[in-house]
Please model this.
Amino acid sequence: MTVRYSLCILQIFFCMPAGLYAQHGEALLKDPFNAYSQQVLQEKLYVHTDKNFYLAGEICWFKIYNTDGFFNKPLGMSKLAYVEVLDKNNQPVLQAKIPLNEGNGNGSLQWPASLASGHYLFRAYTSWMKNFSPAFFFEKQVTVMNTRKNFSSNTTAQKTRFDVQFFPEGGNLVNGLQSMVAFRVTDQYGRGQACSGVVVNEKADTVARYTSLKFGMGSFLFTPVAGHTYKAVTSLPDSIRVTQALPQAYNNGWVMHMGRKNNGQLNISVKTADTSDPATLYLFAHTRGAVKTVAVNTLQHGYAEFVVDTQKLGDGITHFSIFNEQRQPVCERLYFKMPAQPLNITAATDLPVYELRKKVNIGLVSNSRDGKPLPASMSMAVYRVDSLTMPDEMDISSYLWLCADIAGHIESPGYYFSNPNDSTAAALDNLLLTQGWRRFRWDTVFQRKHPVFEFAPEFKGHIIKARVTSSLTGLPVKGAECFLSVAGTRTQFRGDVSDDSGFVKFEMNNFYGNNEVIVQTAQDDSLKHIEIISPYAVKYSGTVLPEFLLPLKNADALYSQHVSMQVQQAYQADKLKQWLMPAIDTLPFYVKPDAAYQLDDYVRFTTIEEILREYVPAVNVRRREGKYYFPVFDNIRQEFFTVDPLVLLDGVPVFDINKLMNYDPLKIRKLEVVARMYFYGSMYFGGIVNFITYKGDLTGYELDPHTTVIDYETLQQEREFFSPVYETPEQVNGRLPDFRSLLYWSPALNTGKEGKQSIVFYTSDLAGKFAVVVQGITADGRTGGSTIFFEVKEHDQLAGKK
Model:
């Protein structure tokens, strides 16, 4: 009976209509992919820096845009970003923790006066992004020149090395089947090299020729033949030739080709060397995790064809994958669609030329392609341009729509967006042909396993992670109660219990202020060791910085910038060190005490025991086996707790109450008592007794020698940008020199419902050409930018021109 039943089921399955079978196959691809995408939220960071060339001692200003990796919409998940500046050996020279608010953050970095001249890698990421490849981190190259320090190269001049790579369209070469083969030729720093070449067989017969189109990339058609071997001979400048074997061609396999039709459709053809039986193929297309189309076709005589309407695809990069009947990916191809609804930002000055120390009015307009106003969050920099300092080749649009979804360095990404035409489209297609990759592995998707992530997203604030180990064995300690404190008048206290691996996590909301962090176990146990773990990523993308050469041809521009910086530091140094106080909640972690005592309002006793006994009725003083302890009165149950309270001094837990009783009470300003059971995670306390000194710095109190005390960088406070005003004749004729080359910086420009914003600033004592660079994004993920120029001339120059 069982066999008959099974045969009936098989007959029903094989007799299913083709459409129903196809729908079943589509679901087998689409459902696990959607489930995976919902579990793996991606973040993208874009950083707008004020410029790309600096002198040591100058300040780098920047704004961080945090977006959803799938939809490019502003994302408020993470509450801080990590910013690093790395040297050529991936050693950090600067690091900062930048607070984020609803997907926006801004900060500044001052280049150290001791920093060596060179190229540096500016990168930014969130804690959540550390779960994925560092290829997803934001990266850009910046150059810093130290004009007060002799430059000496530690490396001898290196011979240029060339890397030549070939990429068959779809993935592989198959004997007897024609393929489009893309190539990329770069030097050791990833810069494209113009080239030409030929493909020859073992008899030295030429079977294909190729020439680069742009940035060392191009493509050609090639059909390998079984029994032959092939080499590519690439000719480079200076009569250099590079010979290497082409990728191996297989006797069995698949090839795909994407062609474009005039009606806005894509024609995707698939071929295989096996022409024996018909087979079902699936075309799966997704744009940054959003499924756009799943199509089914039957392979006839080794050939199948799919037609895709580009209107169904999302903006940016779409991944096309071909699956066989067993749901195995056999080919993959990338396609790019220009954003159909960009953010148009128009910036206009009221004059084309200005005198020194004159007002500049700039009007900003943000709208859609059809002229409708679009509110946008924007940032703007105005700086003098010269042969060393020019506008960036990458902006928010080219990064979020292209760079962030392609592994590795993209040379001049703005080229593909500045003037879209047939030539740029062909160059962009070559780029995509050389970038076959994805953010995931298909076997991971189909296994439907819940991903395990090492780093938690920082939803509320910075998470300080530490590990508890045994001082005797070095092994992790499980179940240890640990506490982290930041001494100060604003009590910052956190607690956690170590997990199986000995890890504890302390979530620090609004983590500003004192950089000294105090970590200890519940009993100051000398047998336990606590180590704070750095929150910065220890993995790197592999980006190679180009060799730094002294800009001898730009000596005049370098000298002018040097003088400008020296004058600013001499006359405006104090103006560059103004910090804005963050708007944070200053309440302690227990919010509101049940009783508070300003000790100066009472008779000042000479011992803490007298203070507690005389006018703190909620705290009893008892001794047990020669040790003091403080039972706290429970206001709810109207009896003293049998569980010990949490005793703090300036927010730091005190476990040796005898030591606290010997502390000088004249150093204590305030006493707060929480007279109720207090639960903190899995820990609980019979109330809280918090002693607060006048300075909040544990004045005169010696911590236990086994306590871990380290300097730990808190969130960066916002530096105020200095921009003088020249409204009155007295201000214009002031004798203090003003050699600002960066006239204006704002990371927080917002256009309202009308899509308009007005900006006012003043020129300095420097004449020259100035760039106005604006970047922005809307709430629905539209991005855009604008760069305009104006000139500043001295009065004599303008008079002569007239």
